[in-house]
């Protein structure tokens, strides 16, 4: 394959997930900052926050369904067309959020419509990440498996920077009233342009060599998920719990901490977003370092390091996430998100290695998205409840427990030959 084709494929795997995560993160940021007051009854601010986080979790329950649907077609019809469809669904759902009426306008219909579009976001993302990973690793030259597999994970910090940077700019030019009234809609509108770019790139790529080879050897499975569960149940289970720490660490470090930092700790919203924006660069650095060393030492070894490091990150929360010390807050975020790179970056290569090509799209999508429910979907809501129940220390123990659980998943397939 020509070098230009390699660059195009890697850019397609990166840009798609960057767009998807941009869409996801603008919702996450809005859910923490403005949705509680806009889409829910005003009788109890704490209940508003809980309900807003509940709508955030809706997408995580849609993601496994999206993984099954898009995985089915990705394993039967190919990676390219499936990736185009997932991007279109995610982009349209995000764009329509910009036009939603608020609770003050239409009452209970407003949060119901919000949940419906949030479900659409999750359905699209459910088919996105797995397909983008396969697009990268199934085109990787020898010795570059994990470095190619890191391109979809790199879409996470790129999308996060774009999303939070957009909100930060709006906060600089709009006052709180303007931001609440109409400013929050602009990032959702802007997603349409990003989706067009993503589609333009993906329509130019070709099918992966692994998929073509699998189709030449045998007809595609009639029901990929049936073959996955009957013949590859252990790696499916192991991959699912192995990815839990990734989601728990990220959504505590971003969604939960944004709300906790601006409300419980009393930091200015724009200032705190700027701190998050700086810290996310450490996640990108962690992904780059982890993928490089994974090609040298193996993905399992690097993931194990990340899972172990998740434990002290959780235990340091109460010491560093304190009012009046943005430096210590930034330190926790930077370390936590750097470790996030080590539990996330190698997943782009590790999860595909667990499954043969004929059911790989379904296998990666199912494991990644089920882990999203366990480790991410309910995490902001659970963390909020834990803080009220016994303080921030309980959230730290929750995060440490996620690291231990993922170690178990890694141990279950230790020594397994790549599929």
TrEMBL record:
Tell me the membrane topology, using the record's own terms: Multi-pass membrane protein
* Top-rank taxon, per record: Bacteria
Report the residue ranges that make up the Major facilitator superfamily (MFS) profile domain in this protein. Answer: 9-418
Under the heading Gene3D superfamilies, the entry gives: MFS general substrate transporter like domains
> Where in the cell?
Cell membrane
Major location category of this protein: membrane
> What Pfam families does the record point to?
Sugar_tr (PF00083)
Membrane spanning stretches: 21-39, 51-71, 83-114, 154-174, 186-203, 237-259, 271-294, 300-322, 329-347, 367-387, 394-413
Recite the UniProt keywords alphabetically: Cell membrane, Membrane, Transmembrane, Transmembrane helix, Transport
Tagged with keyword Transmembrane helix: yes
Name of the protein this chain belongs to: MFS transporter
Could you tell me which species this protein originates from? Sphingomonas canadensis
